[in-house]
TrEMBL record:
GO cellular component: membrane
Pfam families xref list: AA_permease_2
InterPro entries: AA/rel_permease1, AminoAcid_Transporter
Protein name: Amino acid permease
Subcellular location: Membrane
């Protein structure tokens, strides 16, 4: 008998899930970069958050329409298969497993460690930071591999915790800033003159990291009541809430400290902002919530890492699919896939340290926290084009208007990345091409044996 997932989620729950999935460390990590990229121009920084948010909202709506049409299909790999075919789905999955998940997971381990070092007074570029990053990476893997249930509870609890510093700073920081005049000072003072176009491109690409994750929310469509109506509402409503919260948090910081302090201090500037608004002790407590938020996001990304190669192996693709599709009967975890996922995270963490902090790799230094995300937007383009071409039963708005807006947003993100990262894009594309060429060696579908568990 076929078991089907129950329709158990309502609209409010779905919106909460979208917000919980997307909101994480990105806004804490990238708020300072957006401000620095725009030369302390608060208005231009807010515009960057708006543009990044609009791109997210339009793409989310387009995928929501697709999700309600292919109601049993979940995840970007499956949407790629449904529109472009099995082979394209494989290459998207290979990219997700080998580049996307491990690069972002390694960056999150480092970000979590960096905030921890700020809290403890350690150097954020020295060995202490990398040691803590490795411990967080291993700890997250152990939590997912040994106790998936506990990992899930940790993920849920951090969803609530991660909203606390954002909402508190957004509301109280803004009120205090308006009362003290700090907000007005920051809106009317530009720290450094910059080229507006280049600054905006750089800032928008930075916001992409903070906005990433909404595509995961499409996986709830099979369990959502009245999915055809509620999923688009949940994705658009949830992503809009996220954009508003991020912008208000950004303004809250501007009400606490000057743009110059934030630009010079980075994470330390954020800590100072929290302490100025909530007192030294209160600011420290709220800053601890920021670290917990980062660790919660790290835990969620590690969940994706552990299943990266497994998702390919379960389809008969990739290296040794009969090995990597095995599931441990006790923990219900794809053990072999998990181990490979951890190894990939460690490699990309080493790369991030060598590329972004010490410049070991010369020409091949690039920002692994942003360019893989831009690649995802590039991979959306064929999917949106095929949606326009194939889905003839959709109305004008769903078939043409929103997909074209989404396509425009994806192209904008690619152009922005080229302007902001310049030769780094070439270095990244070379490494990307090598990894995808290796993936081509394993692109032939293989037959699977019936045994899929480790006893």
């Amino acid at each position: 008998m076929e078991t089907k997932l129950e329709k158990k989620y309502g609209l409010i729950t779905a919106i909460a899930m979208v917000v919980g999935i997307v909101i994480g460390s990105g806004v804490f990590f990238k708020a300072e970069k957006v401000l620095t990229a725009t030369g302390g121009n608060l208005t231009l920084g807010i515009l960057a958050w708006v543009i990044g948010g609009v791109i997210m909202i339009s793409c989310a709506y387009t995928f929501a329409v697709m999700a309600t049409k292919y109601e049993k299909v979940n995840g970007i790999v499956d949407y790629a298969e449904a529109t472009m075919g099995e082979k394209y789905g494989y290459y998207v999955g290979w990219f997700m497993a080998l580049i996307y998940y491990p690069t972002l997971t390694s960056v999150l381990a480092w970000v979590s460690a960096r905030y921890t070092c700020v809290l403890l007074g350690f150097s954020i570029t020295g060995g202490e930071c990398m040691t803590i990053a490795c411990l967080y990476l291993i700890g997250s893997f152990a939590l997912n591999a040994l106790s998936p249930v506990l990992s899930g509870k940790f993920l849920v609890s951090t969803t609530v915790i991660k909203l606390i510093p954002l909402i508190l700073m957004a509301i109280i920081g803004t009120i205090v800033g308006i009362h003290s005049g700090m907000t007005m000072i920051n809106f009317t003072t530009v720290v450094k003159k910059v080229n507006t176009a280049n600054a905006l491109f750089t800032a928008v690409v930075a916001t992409a990291f903070a906005y990433e994750g909404w595509i995961i929310a499409t996986s709830i469509n099979a369990e959502l009541k009245d999915a055809k109506k509620n999923l688009p509402l949940a994705l658009v409503g949830g992503t809009f809430i996220i954009m508003v919260v991020y912008i208000l948090y950004y303004m809250g910081l501007a009400g606490a400290v000057t743009n110059q302090v934030m630009m010079n201090g980075g994470e330390a500037g954020a800590k100072l902002a929290f302490q100025k608004i909530f007192s030294s002790a209160g600011g420290t407590i709220v800053f601890v919530f920021v670290i917990i938020s980062c660790l919660g996001t790290l835990n969620g990304l590690m969940l994706g890492c552990t299943r990266g190669i497994y998702s390919l192996a379960a389809r008969g693709f990739g290296p040794k699919p009969n090995i990597f599709k095995q599931i441990d009967s006790e923990t219900n975890m794809p053990t072999n896939s998990s181990i490979l996922g951890l190894l990939l995270c460690a490699i990309w963490l080493l790369y991030f340290y060598g590329s972004n902090l010490t410049k070991w790799f010369g020409f091949f230094n690039f920002d692994s926290s942003e360019l893989p995300i831009v690649t995802i937007y590039a991979l959306y383009i064929p999917i949106f084009i095929m949606m326009i071409k194939k889905e003839k039963d959709l109305n004008l708005f769903k078939r043409f208007v929103m997909p074209i807006i989404s396509l425009t947003g994806c192209v904008f993100m690619i152009v922005a990345a080229c302007f902001s990262h310049k030769l780094e894009v070439v270095a990244y594309l070379i490494i990307f091409a090598i990894i995808m060429a290796i993936g081509a060696l394993f692109s032939k579908k293989q037959s699977l044996t019936s045994k899929n568990q480790i006893n």
